[in-house]
Amino acid sequence: MPNQLKEPKGSKSTSDKNEKVTVVEFEDNHLLAQLVGEHDRYLARIEQELGVSVVPRGNKMAISGQKDSRKTTKTVLLDLYSRLEKGLEVTEGEVDAAIRMANDRPASDGSRGSVAETGAMIVTKRRRITPRSTNQSYYVNSLRKHELVFGLGPAGTGKTYLAVANAVAMLIENQVDRIILARPAVEAGEKLGFLPGDMRDKIDPYLRPLYDALYDMLPAEEVVRRLENGEIEVAALAFMRGRTLSNAAIILDEAQNTTPVQMKMLLTRMGENSRMAVTGDLSQVDLPLGVRSGLQEAVHILKGVKGVDFINFGEADVVRHPLVTRIVRAYGEHEREKKLNLKKPSE
Q: How crowded is residue 188: how many other Cβ atoms within 10 Å of its Cβ?
């Protein structure tokens, strides 16, 4: 018998006789107030996204709407309530995540459990991070199980952020001795030479997103200290040549802008007790015309290799501002139309 969706303690649900209303009951009114949000704004968001009406009645929620929508709404409410029971916060982003993950799998299939119960939570010193889509959950679990993981997809899907979070958690738990974050500086060469400062000053602008992620997960003074003592290294990809990276969590970001030679060079730097995450978006290659992406070649060559996993993110996994999702979707549709037009025979 398959596992059923676990309802948080103190909650229960019933459906009325005409099967048009589902009532969910919660034990803790204080948590329920956090769930609905200030001026019921989280509840309003759930209603808008799922096409239902949710009416609070004391410590109960009455859900009206289509049967499938009611089931999905129930899953979302139980998920968010479960987060609150575990001491996790509920924000607008978490509401969107609960809706996204409930839609990813039918509400009648209870095997998933809540986001907070998937086991994919990452704990860092500044925050506890839970996946905001099913693919993100797969990604986090893959980062823990595989030596080399490729996170592929558009901007805003959490590829780099989750990889850095996982690396920070591994460092805190002494699973690795250091974190190495690398990015190709595609504007390197003559343009880079005209920038002011020493080499670190020149390449830092290209590495800033990696620094931002670090400061989001560790206290500022700890980031500085670990950067100074070498426990965290943020560098341009070119600086990796000739090294063996042992006991390390290695992340290559913006990997679509590596050449095949650069990609092979970094992949073969892995030493004993190391894990590597490679992230990139093959629709955003900035290499000179005619130069093949090292990421594209690696995806082709390494398919099926033991210890290597690939997680493909899509438009539905974008977890930034909702407008970013719509922008990514619009660009995706535009690219698909261009490809269709190229395939059409000329008249």
A: 15
Average pLDDT over residues 262-279: 94
Phi first, then psi, for residue 221 (nearest 5°) are -65, -30
Taking the CA atoms of 215, 219, 224 and 230 in sequence, report the sign of the dihedral they define: negative
Q: What angle do CA 136, 142, 144 make, to 5 degrees?
A: 115
The residues that bridge with 276 in the sheet, in sequence order, are 148, 250
DSSP structure string for 57-122: ETTEEEEES-HHHHHHHHHHHHHHHHHHHTT----HHHHHHHHHHHHHS-TT-TTS--GGGSS--E
The structure's pTM equals 0.77
Indicate the pLDDT class of residue 321, thresholds 50, 70 and 90.
low
Contact 324, 332 (CB under 8 A): no
SS3 content of the chain, % helix, strand, coil (to 5): 45, 15, 35
| Mean pLDDT over the full length of the chain | 83
What number of CA atoms fall less than 13 Å from residue 328's CA on the CB side? 21
Position 118, amino acid: T
Query: Could you read off the pLDDT of 148-157 as tens digits, one per residue?
Result: 999 999 988 9
Chain centroid offset of residue 214 CA: 15
Three-state DSSP string of 113-138: CCHHHCCCCEECCCCEECCCCHHHHH
Collapsed DSSP state (helix, strand, coil) of residue 193: helix
Phi-psi region of 111 (alpha: psi -120 to 50; beta: other; left: phi over 0): alpha
